[in-house]
UniProtKB/TrEMBL annotation:
Annotated source species: Sphingomicrobium clamense
InterPro entries tied to this protein: DUF427
Name recorded for this polypeptide: DUF427 domain-containing protein
Matching Pfam families: NTP_transf_9
Positions of the DUF427 domain: 2-88
Domain of life: Bacteria
Amino acid sequence: MVKATWHGETFAESDDTVVVEGNHYFPRDAVKMDRLVPSDTTSHCPWKGDASYFSLRAEGITNADAAWTYEDPKDEAAEIKGRIAFWKGVEVG
């Protein structure tokens, strides 16, 4: 079971992650979406496409842009479509 935790809270937990470039991408239904806040931040990867971000909230603290997703990835990255990955101090393992 892979978990994504930050500030003492588990934000995602699943046996069905997809690992790309060392990042675990969790299925959306394994993520506590009510703890994520959509961000205006976006980025572009030449082979995956355009990513959008979420901020995490735990105990009144916000971790800005600590999760991301590719809602419409390029064909080469189709396996991560709609899945969510974490960084910026989020422990995944």
